[in-house]
From TrEMBL:
<dbReference type="Pfam" id="PF02525">
    <property type="entry name" value="Flavodoxin_2"/>
</dbReference>
<dbReference type="GO" id="GO:0016655">
    <property type="term" value="F:oxidoreductase activity, acting on NAD(P)H, quinone or similar compound as acceptor"/>
</dbReference>
<keyword id="KW-0560">Oxidoreductase</keyword>
<dbReference type="GO" id="GO:0009055">
    <property type="term" value="F:electron transfer activity"/>
</dbReference>
<feature type="domain" description="Flavodoxin-like fold">
    <location>
        <begin position="3"/>
        <end position="203"/>
    </location>
</feature>
<feature type="binding site">
    <location>
        <begin position="99"/>
        <end position="102"/>
    </location>
    <ligand>
        <name>FMN</name>
    </ligand>
</feature>
<keyword id="KW-0288">FMN</keyword>
<dbReference type="InterPro" id="IPR023048">
    <property type="entry name" value="NADH:quinone_OxRdtase_FMN_depd"/>
</dbReference>
<feature type="binding site">
    <location>
        <begin position="17"/>
        <end position="19"/>
    </location>
    <ligand>
        <name>FMN</name>
    </ligand>
</feature>
<comment type="subunit">
    <text>Homodimer.</text>
</comment>
<protein>
    <recommendedName>
        <fullName>FMN dependent NADH:quinone oxidoreductase</fullName>
        <ecNumber>1.6.5.-</ecNumber>
        <ecNumber>1.7.1.17</ecNumber>
    </recommendedName>
</protein>
<comment type="function">
    <text>Also exhibits azoreductase activity. Catalyzes the reductive cleavage of the azo bond in aromatic azo compounds to the corresponding amines.</text>
</comment>
<dbReference type="GO" id="GO:0010181">
    <property type="term" value="F:FMN binding"/>
</dbReference>
<comment type="function">
    <text>Quinone reductase that provides resistance to thiol-specific stress caused by electrophilic quinones.</text>
</comment>
<keyword id="KW-0285">Flavoprotein</keyword>
<comment type="similarity">
    <text>Belongs to the azoreductase type 1 family.</text>
</comment>
<dbReference type="GO" id="GO:0016652">
    <property type="term" value="F:oxidoreductase activity, acting on NAD(P)H as acceptor"/>
</dbReference>
Amino acid sequence: MTNVLYVKVNPQVDEASFSTRLAQAFLDEYQTVNPSDTVTTVDLYKEGVPLIDSDVLSAWGKAGANQELTEDETVKVERMGALLEQFLQADKVIFSAPMWNLSFPPLMKAYIDNILIAGKTFKYTESGPVGLATGKKVALLEARGGVYSEGPAAELEFTQKYFRTVMGFIGIQDVELVVAEGMAYAPAEADQILANAVEKAKSVAKTF
C-alpha cells in the first residue's frame, strides 16, 4: 500500500480556490486509478505550521546543549517533528498552492522550512549537501492569476523554479508540475483555463 500525503496551502473555501479545485481533480483521478492507496491531508491554514522564530531557534540551541525547553519551545519543535516525520513516511506528496505576489503563500515556505532539516532530508558532506529523501514522487498543482510560463513575465516565475530546486536539494527528482494560469489576466476565460489545466492534471494523475 502506498502512502500519499496531500499538502493543501490555501485559506479560501474550496469552491473559490483554483489551486484547490485543480488538486481535487488530480486526487479524484489518482484515487480512481489507485483505490488501495492511503491519502492523508494536511491543511496548513487549518492545522498550522510552526515558523522558524525565536522559540524554535532557542530550542535548537538548547537541544545541542542538552538544556530543558520551555513549554512554547516544546510545542513548536514537537509539531515540526511531526510534520517532518509525516513527510518522511509518505511515498508520494501532492502540493496545491497559488502564486501570491510572485511567490508561494507564507505557510508554504514555512512548511518547506519544517522539512528541510539537516540529518533528516539532507546532509552535508565534503563535496557538498546530499539529499536523503530519495525515492519519493512529488506533484505541485499551482494556480496563478497572471501568465508566467512564457512571455514578458516569464523571468518573474519564481515558484516552480524554487519548488523544483528545493525538492532536488533533498534528493527528489521525480517532480510533476501542473499550473493553471492567467485567470485574473483573462477573467472571461478563467473557467476554460481551469478546465484545460484539469485535463492535464488528470492525465498526470493517471501515471503518478
